[in-house]
Amino acid sequence: MTDRRQWVAIASAAMAAVFAVALVIKVRPQMNLLEVGSRAPDFHAVNLATGRATTLADYQGKVILLNIWATWCQPCRVEMPAIERLHKKLGGPDFQVVSVSIDADGDSVVSAYARELGLTFPILHNQPGDIQQIYQTTGVPESFVIDRDGIIVKKVIGAAEWDGPVNETLIERLTHGQ
């Protein structure tokens, strides 16, 4: 009987250790959540206008609105005109819209969508969609306002009124250092 109790105790301890390791593996990614105050992680995408590989570092020192979207997403289509108006009003050397499509389809589908909506800001394409894992998005659209130092100052899940007074004031404050 003593041997059996020892084996039961050893098996129980081993199962507890396996469970603890599995729990750590499952929970650990959630411990490093990307949120307001986090450093914006780098990503790789193709600029459809230039065909050039583009990363977050290409926008260093600028305030950016990073918008992650897809052509098949209806809320994305709804918010694009507001992003275009914000770009036309405030875009320049200090502020840049960084619009990243995660479409699995080719660049031509994304370019046609941008032309159809009359978008004039740069359109990037992250065809593998890995920007979604990098930025821990739950869907599209999701947007991040990133300050000159690369820190996320605002995160929005879903479509937003980007040319509304709250967002314009935030962008102006970040670009003018007020």
Largest sheet: 7 strands, mixed
* Side-by-side strand order of the widest sheet: 2-1-5-4-3-6-7
As a percent range, the share of strand residues is: 15-25%
> What coarse outline follows from CA principal-axis ratios?
elongated
What percent of residues adopt helix (DSSP H or I)? 40-55%
Distance between the termini: 76 Å
Secondary structure blueprint with pairings:
Layout: H1 2-31, E1 44-47, E2 53-55, E3 63-69, H2 74-90, E4 95-101, H3 107-117, E5 123-125, H4 131-134, E6 142-146, E7 152-157, H5 165-176
Parallel strand pairs: 3-4, 4-5
Antiparallel strand pairs: 1-2, 1-5, 3-6, 6-7
Brief write-up:
This protein has 178 residues and is α/β, with parallel strands linked by helices.
Structural write-up:
It is a single chain. This protein is an alpha/beta fold. The protein has 5 helices and 7 strands, in the order H-E-E-E-H-E-H-E-H-E-E-H. Strand 1 (44-47) and strand 2 form a beta hairpin. The protein is elongated and about 80 Å long. The protein starts with a helix and ends with a helix. The relative contact order is 0.18.
